[in-house]
Amino acid sequence: MKRCIIITAYLKKSIRQSLRLHDDDFIICADGGYELAKKEGIVPHIVIGDFDSGNAPEKDSETVIHVPVEKDDTDTLLCLKYGIEKGFHVFGIVGGIGGRLDHTIANLQALSYGCDLGKYVVLLNGNNVVTMLNPGTIQIQKRKGYKLSLFSYTEYCKNVTIKGVKYPLTNALLDHSFPIGVSNEILEEEATLSFDKGKLLVMFSRDN
């Protein structure tokens, strides 16, 4: 399945350290993300932003969308909405974690926005891989050197069960004010996760 990759303006590691690009990826740069892509020789299909965090590329108007500085949506959310309008279902948002806290939270909310529309959106920055899930059952592949954490993004996530981990849960209630799901470990090649109500923030993290 073709992916839509969104490159944000803040990223400590390189783009290619954060994810492996595919030849058929559709690449959008959010504002100053264009400068990061340019440094790595990555040519985006389109650049969207108000360009308050970087210079607008010298390209045809068909490949650059200028938006006002004063607006409701962040540049990253505008990129996500653009990709959704183009029919993509799988998104990788590169960067956007660990800089300004307000931007990090806004990007987590972008995950929630995509989740509400049934899209699979992942936020990556080299040390973290974050996604948002609706109720169901999934297999989670182990990532060597990473800790797995589960957080309730809604007030509650009900009947959370996770097997194949160091600290299993069975029909647990996770709420948004107690971090019981932090820093778990997958013991084998994959773990099984299920829950039946709420939105769950799933995060792989490692130290620098």
Structural write-up:
The structure is a single chain. This protein is an alpha/beta fold. It is 18% helix and 35% strand. It is built from 4 helices and 13 strands. The chain has a 9-stranded mixed sheet with strand order 4-3-2-1-5-6-7-13-9, with helices on both faces. The protein has a 4-stranded antiparallel sheet with strand order 8-12-10-11, with no helix packed on it. The radius of gyration is 17 Å and the shape is globular.
Topology:
Layout: E1 3-7, H1 15-18, E2 26-30, H2 33-39, E3 46-49, E4 64-66, H3 75-85, E5 90-94, H4 101-116, E6 120-124, E7 128-133, E8 136-141, E9 147-152, E10 156-163, E11 169-175, E12 190-195, E13 200-205
Parallel strand pairs: 1-2, 1-5, 2-3, 3-4, 5-6
Antiparallel strand pairs: 6-7, 7-13, 8-12, 9-13, 10-11, 10-12
Briefly say what this structure is:
The protein has helices at 15-18, 33-39, 75-85, 101-116; strands spanning 3-7, 26-30, 46-49, 64-66, 90-94, 120-124, 128-133, 136-141, 147-152, 156-163, 169-175, 190-195, 200-205.
Provide tags for this entry.
208 residues, alpha/beta, Rossmann fold, Jelly Rolls, 2 domains, nine-stranded mixed beta sheet, four-stranded antiparallel beta sheet, 4 helices, 18% helix, globular
Low-confidence stretches: none
| Annotated CATH architecture of the largest domain | 3-Layer(aba) Sandwich
Helix and strand sequence: EHEHEEHEHEEEEEEEE
Helix content: 10-25%
Radius of gyration: 17 Å
Classified by CATH, the class of the largest domain is Alpha Beta
Q: What oligomeric state do these chains adopt? A: single chain
Given helix and strand content, the structural type is alpha/beta
Q: Write out the CATH superfamily name of the largest domain.
A: Thiamin pyrophosphokinase, catalytic domain
Quickly count the helices.
4
Mean of residue pLDDT values: 91
Provide the CATH topology of the largest domain.
Rossmann fold
Q: Please tell me the total number of domains.
A: 2
- Form type: globular
DSSP E strands, number: 13
Instruction: Characterize the biggest β-sheet.
Output: 9 strands, mixed
- End-to-end C-alpha gap: 31 Å
Portion in beta strands: 25-35%
Q: In order across it, which strands form the biggest sheet? A: 4-3-2-1-5-6-7-13-9
